[in-house]
Amino acid sequence: MERLQKYIASSGYCSRRKAEELIKKGLVTVNGNIVSEMGLKVSSKDEIEVEGNKISRENKEYYLLYKPRGVVTTVSDDKNRKTVVDLIETNTRIYPVGRLDYDTTGVLILTNDGELANGLMHPRNKIDKCYVAKVKGIPESKNLKLLLKGVVVDNVKVRASRVKMKKVDKKNNTCMIYLTIHDGRNHQVKKMLSTIGLEVLKLKRESVSFLTLNGLNSGEYRILNPKEIHKLYNEIGIKKEQ
Ligand code: URA
Questions:
Q1: Ligand 1 in reach of 11 Cβ (< 6 A)
Q2: CA spacing 20 to 30 A to 104: which of 34, 37, 135, 170?
Q3: Edge-to-edge, what's the strand order for the sheet holding 53-54?
Q4: Is 0.90 surpassed by the pTM of this model?
Q5: How far is the CA of 190 from the centre of ligand 1 (A)?
Q6: Residue nearest to atom 2 of ligand 1 (CA)
């Protein structure tokens, strides 16, 4: 038995907070009866509907993909391009947690666990996403510091929590910028670097929280183990029974 709001969240329908709102608004029924108080315990034997949609709970699946270049981070693509979901052998409706651009490579989590996905994407939880970018241009250190102070991207101030420059190649006017961010706005890294005059030539996400690409080649994936899932839940501040 599980609390109704948690049950709805882990079905992937919405976050736990949103589920609480929907319950309060009287938009949730259990076995045909509207439930508007928090805390009711339910199980998979109960018939639950949210805003008229039946909630079903599948087994949860969790994958870590080394996203290759030239693949779209969506469930289906209207231009019929290969998607990240096509790279994973499963019959379950999984989806990517956050987005990497078509030409970006690196760590991507895919799951059908909405509660975890929402938690990992929410900036409040300050999940480290570490990128390495090969850029055209060699920034002055005062400009790199601007990334730590905060730069405006699409009218929102965003900042990196860590920035480092390596492999300065003066001859070709390129270098590698390592940076860690907590949010995941569209093209955020490219746009942040462009504010200090750098063009991204290549971008790779090296890690999300403690998950790295170790042991994987581009295009390969592995299933996350229960310990890792537990640790990810800890990272988003939710205690999960094992
Ligand atoms: N920031 C970008 O600019 N692109 C990505 O793919 C991810 C983060």
A1: no
A2: 170
A3: 33-34, 28-30, 48-50, 53-54
A4: no
A5: 6
A6: 187
